[in-house]
Amino acid sequence: MKVEILTKNENNSVQQGIISKLRDYIEYKNLEPGDKLPSERMLSERFEVSRSNIREAIQKLEFFGILKSRPQSGTFIANIGRVAMSGMLDDILRLEDPSFKSLVETRILLELKTVRLAALRRTEEDLEKIGAALEAYNAKVLKGQEAVEEDLLFHLAIAKASKNSTMNTFMLIITPEIITNFNKHHVCDANLSVKGIKEHEEIFEAIKEQDPRKAKAKMKAHFSVLYQYCYNI
Asked: Measured between alpha carbons, how far is 21 from 48 in angstroms, rounded to an integer?
């Protein structure tokens, strides 16, 4: 059994190739909304790629709402028109990997919304989770250790407290890439991390006080250095 180990760029290239072939297959077979795709095994043989590659491509198209998988039944074309579906597939094939700057911009836009909602909607249980994440971050920083993951867990706890599942999902999607880029660019040096303790505590207090305006202002101030750093690399 042949096992292929692909780099990220190679894997992206394979995924794009599969999506392109799926688009051509759908058009060639004149598949309509609700029609069923061949099994992963059949697509794997037809496109001459591994079943895991097929599965990843299908999951990507599910995320964008083009395909729907039903347990024990298979994968089906979603209930969208052929013109819209074709346009969406073309757009997906043109997608580029997000840059560090675009990730930062997206994160800031999301978090200015989630922190405001968290202040309005948080529960006592949410406060406990945000507080626990804050303590974990503080402990790492005070030991002089990197706390990139603990920092992001603090922000993810706030996103969850917003009670907006869509924004929470977006945060979860971009978090792994953010961690990678933070480590790559050495974003969180010791000084910024120590400063971050005070800023995190101020954000936490604003959420605790259920003051959405103050929470948003503290989050905006917290991101000011990151935003400036992002545009200077």
From this structure: 11
CA distance 222 to 104: 13
Give strand pairing partners of 36.
Answer: 76
Backbone angles phi, psi at 127, to 5 degrees: -60, -40
* Tokens linked to 34: 């609700």
Instruction: Supply 87's token pair.
Output: 């346009």
C-alpha 25/C-alpha 37 separation (Å) is 9
- Which residues does the chain have with pLDDT short of 70? 1-9, 96-98, 181-192, 227-233
Q: Does 3 fall in a domain? A: no
Q: Is the dihedral of CA 220, 226, 232, 233 positive or negative?
A: negative
What does the pLDDT read at residue 182?
Answer: 67
Q: What is the pLDDT of residue 139?
A: 94
Give the residue from 208, 222, 188, 32 showing the smallest Cα distance to 111. 222
Q: By residue range, what is the domain housing residue 132?
A: 100-230
Do 154 and 141 form a contact (C-beta atoms < 8 A)?
A: no
Q: How far apart are CA 136 and CA 229, in angstroms?
A: 25
Same-domain pairing of 213 and 105: yes
- What's residue 203's pLDDT? 97
Q: Decide if 77 contacts 32 (C-beta within 8 A).
A: yes
Q: Are residue 17 and residue 72 in the same domain, yes or no? A: yes
Helix (H, G, I), strand (E, B) or coil at 67: strand
